[in-house]
Design brief:
The chain is about 55% helix and about 15% strand. The protein is an alpha+beta fold. The longest helix has about 50 residues, at about 235-285.
Length: about 575
């Protein structure tokens, strides 16, 4: 549409510039097309240039502002001109054409400019409805067409009287400017909306309106060319009727061929679309139902038949959609469908809802259903995509059971158990609260930093393990020093593993307090050292006693006496 608007605006500007050149260089042909015709007034030419330039502006904020300011300025100029006759300062020595002065704005020109100012001003505003803009531009188009028709018939409006007539080039400029405004408004608004599109009505209007108008104008124009005393009106009317009927017949035949071609193409496209839809729908793993405005099933894909236990589509097509709804849900379902068909809206439209479905054999199973609606022939139709969520519910139930078992065991554990997800603690058992001194609310807070629990001497070891987990690596259990909220320290062993959590990886950690074990180990070490010392002392004394006994027995033997120790 923009190229048409720009083209017509450019034509209006060219006509206006030629008129101004004609006034400046006194070239009557440029100012008025013909010496017998009144020329376009200089003020009229300037206004055309201003309004056409504003129409050429892009639909940006600056462009809309230009349209508003230009139309408002022109409107103010026209009002002042009515009061002060500003054009006398532009054309100091006006010529006359009959009884009227040239170089002045004609009344019809003034009316058209007011209509164009209204259309252009409203185009500069952000409005959803463009009917008034289109109506004002169409009014300008009709007036300019009437003026041009008068020139065509050799009977221009108001020539020979005291009212200033509209110039021929002014009428042409108005024709271009009004068409530019109509194309700027767009095909969705009056009047283009009646002739836009490929359906039969706009196609016929596009062809027959100009043909009808052209036929009438041509008939009148030919009549003016034939001398009145030589015309046989009956013969002339018959010949013109035959000519018009022939033209209309040819046009009707061509339009019928176009419409037939469009209908055939549309029919082929519909058939192709249906085939593509059915092929795609039968490839879906989810059930698809389409219901008509009476809530009867109009279509069911292969997955729907398999899911609900039907052998073929004939068992479902034409049946009420209640055949797949359990009895206890039918009343609520019926009320929902009535509300949907009455208002075109449904509370569950566009979102997945979990409920139960009914198979042909009477068994009930869980489903997830998404409903969409669309209007056709002033009635509301709807479709449903249904998933069998039996397996999903079993998995969810297993997950819930596993979660319950995990939490039960975790809360009964004598050790601290936690889950760390992306550096934040998302789960901690009661023992974490008891040992660390932090409340569960503090530990689970997004602002809580788990590194506050680490002794500075253990910080590097803990962070190294955390980084390995972030890379997807497992970590062997290790000892570290944990710092309680009150500053007290305790020795612990931490065991961590990567687990699946919320479609991501998280760290499951178990912390065992080994402070008492460490104390016991220290005590045992000290006892061991004491025993080692005692052993050393006791064994040395025993060896010395044995040597002494040997020496005593040897001395007694030397003296001839019997051994005392027998060694």
């Amino acid at each position: 549409m923009n190229k048409f608007s720009h083209g017509f605006c450019s034509a209006a500007i060219i006509l206006s510039i030629l008129a101004l050149i004609g006034w400046v260089f006194d070239i009557t042909l440029l100012a008025g097309v013909n010496q017998k015709f009144i020329p376009m007034a200089p003020g009229t030419a300037i206004i055309f240039i201003v309004l056409a330039a504003a129409l050429l502006a892009r639909p940006t904020r600056a462009g809309r502002l230009a349209k508003v300011l230009s139309s408002a300025s022109v409107f103010i100029f026209l009002l002042l001109n009515l009061q002060l006759n500003l054009e006398r300062f532009i054309v100091l020595e006006p010529r006359t054409l009959g009884a009227v002065f040239t170089g002045r704005i004609a009344p019809l020109t003034l009316i058209n400019f007011i209509l164009m100012c209204v259309s252009l001003f409203l185009l500069g505003l952000k409005r959803e409805n463009r009917f008034i803009e289109g109506l004002a531009a169409t009014g300008t188009l009709i007036v300019s067409a009437a003026v041009l028709t008068g020139y065509l018939f050799g009977l221009p409006f108001f020539y020979g009287g005291s009212i200033i007539p509209m110039a021929l080039n002014t009428g042409l400029a108005f024709l271009c400017l009004s068409l530019a405004a109509i194309f700027t408004i767009g095909p969705d608004w009056f009047p283009l909306k009646f002739i836009s599109g490929h359906s039969a009505r706009p196609l016929m209007l596009r062809w027959f309106t100009p043909i009808f108008f052209f036929s009438i104008v041509l008939q009148g124009y030919i009549y003016t060319l034939i001398p009145a005393d030589t015309v046989n009106f009956a013969l002339y009317s018959f010949v013109m009727a035959i000519a018009i009927v022939t033209i209309l017949g040819l046009a009707l035949s061509y339009v019928a061929r176009l419409i037939g071609s469009e209908l055939d193409q549309a029919q082929r496209q519909i058939i192709e679309s249906e085939e593509k839809f059915r092929t795609l729908a039968d490839c879906l793993i989810d059930a698809l139902f389409i219901c008509d405005a009476a809530a009867n099933i109009a279509y069911a894909n292969a997955a729907a038949l398999a899911m609900f236990g039907y052998a073929n589509k004939e068992e479902l097509i034409g049946k009420s959609d209640l055949v797949i709804v359990p009895k206890e849900l039918r009343e609520r379902h019926r009320q929902g469908i009535e509300h949907l068909l009455k208002t075109g809206q449904a509370k569950i439209t566009g979102r997945e809802v979990e409920l139960n479905g009914l198979r042909k054999n009477g068994s009930i199973f869980p489903i997830a259903m998404t409903i969409s609606t669309w209007p056709a022939n002033n009635r509301t139709y709807f479709g449903a995509i249904i998933k069998d969520i039996t397996a999903r519910q079993l998995i969810e139930n297993d997950l819930k059971s596993s979660e319950v078992r995990f939490k039960t065991l975790s809360e009964q554990s004598p050790n601290m158990i936690f889950i760390n997800h992306k550096g934040k603690v998302v789960y901690a058992n009661k023992k974490c609260e008891e040992i660390t001194g932090y409340s569960l609310a503090e530990i689970l807070s997004p602002a809580f930093d788990f590194r506050a629990l680490n002794d500075p001497g253990s910080q590097a070891r803990v962070e190294a393990a955390f980084e390995k987990h972030k890379r997807g690596e497992e970590v062997n259990p290790y000892e570290y020093t944990l710092v309680k909220k009150n500053g007290e320290k305790l020795e612990a062993v931490i065991s961590t593993r990567l687990i699946d959590y919320d479609h991501d990886k998280a760290i499951l950690g178990v912390v065992t307090d080994i402070s008492e074990l460490k104390k016991a180990e220290t005590a045992m070490k000290m006892r061991y050292e004491e025993l080692e010392i005692f052993k050393d002392v006791a064994v040395g004394r025993e060896l010395k006693m044995i040597e002494l006994e040997k020496e005593i027995d040897a001395l007694l033997t030397t003296l001839g006496r019997p051994k005392k120790y027998g060694t």
